Amino acid sequence: MAINSGTADTSPSKIVVLGTGGTIAGRASSAGDNIGYTAGEVGVAQLLESIGAFQNGALALVAEQVAQVDSKDMDFALWQRLAGRCAHWLAQPEVQGIVITHGTDTLEETAYFLQAVLDPAKPIVLTCAMRPATALVPDGPQNLLDAVTVAATAGAHGVVAVCAGNIHGALDVQKVHSYKVDAFSSGDAGLVGVVEEGRVRLYRPWPGAVDSYKENMPLAQVAPAPAAIKNIVLRGADADGYWPRVEIVLNYAGASGLLVDALVAQGVRGIVAAGTGNGTLHVDLQAALLRAMAAGVRVRRSTRSVFGRVLATPADAIPDAHGLSPVKARIALLLELLAEA
Ligand code: ASP
Q: Hey, what domains does the chain have and what are their CATH numbers?
């Protein structure tokens, strides 16, 4: 295996590993400490060294450090930069696929964002860790090795996430545990497949290619993504001026319209309501959301339930979020508004 920093690589085929930080690159002062660490400290080239002896494919690995952040701090500017680097590398014929090392906290959002914007014909595999690189038994090296295996698999495409031997589709993946090493679920949709001893076993087709998958993925229905979004997201211009403000409000016992009214007063462009159960909303919250819609704010209704989706009826006053979780519905709404900008 060759590990390079930068772009110089004469091998005919390669996998590019983009580092963004996260716990997988985290460092603690004691090997027994799995939570008191600083995320985003170890470089991606060094992470690759930990798997060098075990990666037995013919593909060279090229490391590029795109960022070094705790993914709780993920922002639009970094998404824009990351999408730009992915687009750059995907366009190189010698690149077989991309692996992205990422924090677990917002991994599902980045996965959805990249799938919606790039709809890649090659694999983009996000991977992560729940324990820092300095842990007694770190989970990062195996996850990284598995992610490289997935990226190297013939026929793989679309954005997927690999963690704890499981392959999740970008649309379905959700962090469902705050501590366990197997922290992700694909909910009702189930896993795309698993990685076992360096081999991929698929349970269903690669999700990026499946029509029913895309039907539930606003803005990835057309490939490539609408030109307006691509131009804005990939051109690398000042991101902040382009990103409309879209926020999430939650329904709960005693919810009021206070937050919604305040957001509207602040000029919010979109609101995702994370409703209870089948997207139900407290009568006061619903009234505020309807006022917001009347004022021109785009509103979508999702559910705070981890499993299942909002089942819409023709009588619904507030449109549903096409089965997207609240955080993914927010990204879809952002991109929808960007496309109209
Ligand atoms: N806060 C970390 C992050 O998302 C958590 C992790 O990576 O597990 O970057």
A: 2-209 (3.40.50.1170), 242-339 (3.40.50.40)
